Amino acid sequence: MLAYTLQRLGIALIVVIAVSALTFAFTNLAVDPARAVAGEGATDQDLARIRAEYGFDRPPVTQYLDWLGSTATGNLGNSIRQRRPVVDVLAEAFPVTITLSCAAMTLALLIAVPLGIVAAVRPNSWIDRFSQGLAVIGMAMPTFWFGLLMIMLFGIRLRWLPISGDATLVHFVMPAIALAYYSIPIVMRLTRAGMIDVLATDYIRTARAKGLLPGKVLFKHALRNAMLPLVSVTAVQFGHLLAGSVVVETVFALHGVGFLAWQSITQADLPIIQAIVLVLALIYVVLVLLADLLNAVLDPRIRLG
Amino acid sequence: MQTLTIPRRGFIAGSAALLAVTEAHANKQDDTLRFALGGAPDLIDPYYSGDRDVTMLIGETLFDTLIYRDPLSFQHKPLLATAWRWIDEVTLEFDLRPDVVWHDGRNFTAEDVAYTFAYLLNPASRLTMPQWSSWVKQAEAVEPLKARLHLNAPFGPALEYIAEVLPILPNGLYPPGSSSGAGDKLIGTGPYRITSFQSGKGATFERNNKYFAGSPKGYPAIGKMAFRAIPDPATQVAELLGGGVDWIWRITRDQADRLATAPGIEVTSGGTMRTFWIGMEARRPPFQDPRVRRAVAHAIDRKALAQELMGPATPLLDVPCFPPQFGCIKPDAVPHYDYDPAKAKQLLAEAGFPSGFTTTLSIYRSSPDRMLAEALQGYLQAVGIRASLNVTTLKAFYADVAQQKLPLKLESYGQYNINDAAIILSVYWGGGTQDSYQDAEVVAWVNEAMRIGDQDRRRRLFEQAERKIIEQNFAVPLFIQTMDYAFSKDLAFTAWPDENPRLYMCRWK
Hints:
Chain A is mainly α.
């Protein structure tokens, strides 16, 4: 298990460094931070002054290595636009996104897993077809549209929920539902497919033949094995929710990481872009690593084979 | 800044219909004017924020400048200074108002003026836009209520810069070594004082009860103001309909049309200083030939383009500057090029392109430029100019202009609210890297006008340059962008011609 863990950790580190290097290269190719700071119509002298002042005139490799070096010491630099430490900026944005993502993931699991189990136990029943329909609609409907429909109903018509902002936990209700709706179809279909496969296996038939209670067969024997792919997908989905909530955060004016990333890209605030990509890559890698390790715990064949 | 726009026509219509049964409530009850900004201002200090909404909207709310520019006449009037005079071409003297106090209760004096410029001119301050003050050499407090500015060299637009982009700060505002702005510690003399600020989220303001009588800005009528950053325009509309905010701006035409029918909501249009024009790379064929440039001018139905796509109140533009600007030539003093596709085809044939030619039309902003560019493609196609669309980034756009790689481009400029033609002419026709024409005469005239203080001569030089720009079709001016606002019917709001909403002048009905 230790060798397996070390191997996964090594791969994770390489992935993080590769992602940060690629991000640095692509953002430098795409945007001119000096131009972004100076605005439209800036003169050549303005640009030269800003490049010298901010160090944009140094070779890109030097800039990247400097950044990597200071990052290793925990210093992610200063935001060009906000003129304060990137760590402080991220410390304000991450709690919003983490609250949103955790709420959305919890909601998605609470809805999708039971629906998937019931659909698998009663294939082709009305509830199975309802679940399938829900999944198709969930995958087809754009998140922003679903969010706006909720705003119209619950924010404007009924006035039950606040429309935008992140002042209280109530402000997260509509965004969490909108975001969860994106994950529910994937988790539900995977649960259903996994359960159908497991329920058709010999050991389940044997368990039933032994006279075990249906609930025990379902939850103790079937679900445990059906969960293996679900654990991996949930980890990746959670990463998606953390990194991919830009639309939901924009619609509901939540100032989280997704919105910060989009805003930083449009403003060419390279230190923030770099830091967000690095942190999100780290989170992804840790989640996938945890999923791998959890799967290895659940299924000894993975760690031994 | 840019906003993440997701067009949702049905949402506005649906929301307006829902409001038929749930009328919007406003914040008149708690005497707080709540408004939304599309951008998320990271910094609220006008000298450090690169966000134009902050420098324009918030800057004037918290601070005063020495001189005030009248929003209708564009004339300069006294504000913190009661009078001013040029001692010589490089020395400007101000008599200061005696009855002004800072938000923290201190009296305003000439020392504050001296401190402001000393701070701005210190390179360690690392201002976002140091060019606004770099023409000043030094400021001195001559007497407690008399200050002088010493300029590096004659600078024609000096008064305009002083009125629009150089708010006066209290002596010692920033801690030594500071280069990141003052945030919610900002202290001004303006009609409102700041009470809280959350980076990227919003801020709250309270009326400055000691605001001096006789200010052309007027005594503030509303007790409190608060803004929230709401990036998505559809959510801003929802908040307005739901009563969460009282005022929004930069709404699109279809939003304006639908909001106008919503109960409790009023919609109005105002001007901006953003001018649009078609630029061409005149140093290379085919646009090197003046007949080809003139053909482009005749190929575009500017009136239809402006009114159909930008709104019926959109003013057409005939000059390469913003018409009220100092030094901007009168429209009747330049040639006009009517929409005449037949003439455009004839000019192309004379230039050796009887079958037209293929080229590229470049833009770097998505809205409304893409919509406009697609319409322009149609007009150009009709006379034989087959232009493919190149949507690029700001960096690539400017780099490619400098390398003469963009044959045809849709350009616009907001003038940074400076009412002096120097601001636009120096960038686009002054011989720099963004000048695609490099006409020796135009460059010489513009640069001379930038170096002298004689206003009559400056005006003549600018007009000379502008006339040649239009005669030679070094630009095909299109229109001036307008701005649509939507707000609660409880609010008395006036839309001004220069885009600055001056919310501190609002009152409840």
